[in-house]
Amino acid sequence: MTVEELKNKKIGVLMGGLSAEREVSLNSGAAVLRALTDQGFNAVGIDVGRNLAAQLSAEKIEVAFVALHGRFGEDGSVQGVLELMGIPYTGSGVLASALAINKIFSKTVFRAAGLTVAPYQILKRGEHLTLAHPLPVVVKPSQEGSSVGVSIVKEQAQLEPAIAEAFKYDAEILIERFIDGREVQVGILDGKALGAIEIVPKNEFYDFEAKYTAGMAEHILPARLPAAIYEEVLRAGEKAHACLSCDCYSRVDFLVTAAGELYILEVNTLPGMTDLSLLPEIAGGAGISFKELVVRVLQAASLKI
Q1: Is residue 169 among the annotated active site residues?
Q2: Catalytic residue chosen out of the listed positions 212, 237, 249, 277
Q3: 25, 97, 268, 277: which is the annotated catalytic residue?
């Protein structure tokens, strides 16, 4: 849609929601809403509840800018409601969203596409664990974002508490071999890589606190990689975005070892849009302002089915 067409429609910025990332989503949504209203769009914020369909109908929303994170927003459920109601929306569709948020299924797709994932095993609630990899390992829920429920386990005594923590958020968890590497994240817009940023957290890894607390992580743009490896990670980011059939924009997270090996972690189909978020920072490095980024994402709003 053109900017002129969009300015004649009522836009709902979907934020908040029901996930563990609710507060982050409220911040993303507020930033997006401000960017839209400052540019003359008729936009309103909608704090998403289980009565979302009624909320959208009451506000007579014609286009949805989805600024939700985590479950019940980034997993295809809200996208399905919007498809059913015939409301064009930003970001990826039902299938891509569901695949990307589920680390087990996305790893299967990544491997089929020729991308490298860390060796891992799956543990379901109630199953007995026989550890398949030597310590250290990373324990994480299969369907959460922002590093919620993630632990690095270096000693045997840490394993049981880490598993219990991950099971707070999911009935199925992953235990991955720990990969020692730089945390590098690729920003994707219109299916093309904008650049790659390196994160140097002050905590043990890029956890929830480091992601959303000012001063808790150093952002290095562009990432400190040899030119050939930098280009390789950009192409790998585009491949990951495409193999899940993502739409318009995403952020793809990697670990890059000292030997130049790329391990894909995940694709974020609705990356953060806060003051500390990485996609806006990467876009800024490519000469795209936050307001321009928001409008370009909005222009790609569509029905996917």
Answers
A1: no
A2: 212
A3: 268
pLDDT of residue 194 exceeding 50, the answer is yes
Asked if 70 contacts 19 with a C-beta cutoff of 8 angstroms, the reply is: yes
Is 21 labeled as catalytic in the residue annotation?
yes
Pick the CATH number of 120-177 from 3.30.1490.20, 3.30.70.560, 3.40.50.300, 3.40.50.1360: 3.30.1490.20
At residue 3, what are phi and psi to the nearest 5 degrees?
-60, -40
* pLDDT above 60: residue 293: yes
Does 89 participate in catalysis according to the annotation?
no
pTM of this structure: 0.91
The catalytic residue among 12, 17, 19, 21 is: 21
Nearest CA to 7 out of 45, 37, 46, 47 is that of 37
Would residue 251 show up in a list of annotated catalytic residues for this protein?
yes
* pLDDT tens digit sequence for 181-191: 999 999 999 99
pLDDT tens, residue by residue, 195-214: 999 999 776 655 455 455 55
**CA–centroid distance for 109 within its chain:** 17
